[in-house]
């Protein structure tokens, strides 16, 4: 799995990130979602590297083998702004001052924050299976609260960690056949680690706290994504069912916008890697 990629730990001061990177050419940063690690891209990243891209695949702070700072009362240590800052610093460390970024699930919010906070560095944004947090909350109704109940349960103190760690395998029900054996083993080890579980839950707590406020401040100030933006969503997941046309939701955030559905369940990089590779290569001009 990613055997041709360099696998290293990079000390960024506040955190140390595990990162796998390989290939040569224009840079693309791939950001995983919950509860995955960078290994979720193991069927996509090598193909992008072979197509002539420098591909960077980190574990976000607190996820997988990356460290996380202690929780703060406002959960800002796990904010998308903090995670985006990590990844911008990581790309500088690896020699990539300008790059495209693709983020899936929770990584989608980090990718958006990178494009807003580091506008001069992000050449292209790919948002996969997500809409901005503030947009989801503004549309929250009984259907959304029922489908995304975990957003609100994870916001409670202590209980989510206790519930998950009582039986992580039952909680996450990771599908080894779908994920691949090595990816499955890596993610399973992560979700059995209490420090990782705490950081992942803090990610959600930050979403309902500082993250939505950062997005609302952007909207009030008229800040939008300057780079070309591609939105991909899984046709067998519930994003379009809950929110309607995802492109309509994203349109106020990005003027240069395109996108389409992928025939897949939620974890599209694992379930439909060929379609994801095709979409990313077309968007990135490779």
Automatic annotation (TrEMBL):
Coiled coil: none annotated. It holds the Pfam family Abhydrolase_1. Keywords: Hydrolase, Oxidoreductase. The keyword Ubl conjugation does not apply. One of its GO terms (molecular function) is oxidoreductase activity. InterPro entries: AB_hydrolase_1 (IPR000073), AB_hydrolase_fold (IPR029058), Epox_hydrolase-like (IPR000639). Residues 26-272 form the AB hydrolase-1 domain. PANTHER family: EPOXIDE HYDROLASE. This is Alpha/beta hydrolase. The lineage of its organism: Bacteria, Bacillati, Actinomycetota, Actinomycetes, Micromonosporales.
């Amino acid at each position: 799995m990613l055997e041709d990629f360099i696998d290293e730990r990079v000390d960024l001061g506040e955190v140390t990130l595990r990162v796998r990177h390989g290939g040569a050419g224009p840079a693309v940063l791939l950001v995983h979602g919950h509860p995955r690690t960078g290994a979720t891209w193991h069927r996509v990243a090598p193909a992008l590297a072979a197509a002539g891209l420098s591909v960077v695949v980190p574990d976000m702070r607190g996820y997988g083998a990356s460290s996380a700072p202690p929780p703060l009362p406002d959960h800002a240590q796990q904010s998308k702004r903090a995670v985006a800052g990590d990844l911008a610093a990581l790309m500088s460390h690896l020699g990539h001052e300008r790059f495209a970024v693709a983020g899936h699930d929770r990584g989608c919010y980090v990718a958006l924050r990178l494009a807003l906070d580091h506008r001069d560095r992000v050449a292209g944004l790919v948002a996969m299976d997500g809409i901005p947090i503030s947009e989801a909350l503004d549309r929250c109704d009984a259907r959304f609260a029922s489908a995304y109940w975990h957003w609100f349960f994870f916001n409670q103190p202590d209980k989510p960690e206790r519930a998950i760690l009582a039986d992580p395998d039952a909680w996450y029900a990771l599908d080894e056949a779908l994920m691949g054996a090595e990816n499955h083993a890596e993610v399973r080890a992560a979700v059995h680690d209490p420090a990782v579980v705490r950081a992942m839950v803090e990610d959600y707590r930050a979403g309902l706290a500082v993250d939505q406020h950062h997005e609302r401040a952007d909207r009030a100030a008229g800040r939008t994504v300057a780079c070309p933006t591609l939105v991909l969503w899984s046709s067998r997941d519930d994003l379009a069912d809950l929110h309607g046309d995802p492109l309509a939701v994203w349109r106020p955030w990005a003027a240069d916008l395109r996108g389409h559905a992928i025939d897949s369940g939620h974890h599209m990089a694992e379930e439909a890697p060929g379609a994801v590779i095709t979409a990313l290569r077309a968007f990135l001009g490779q």
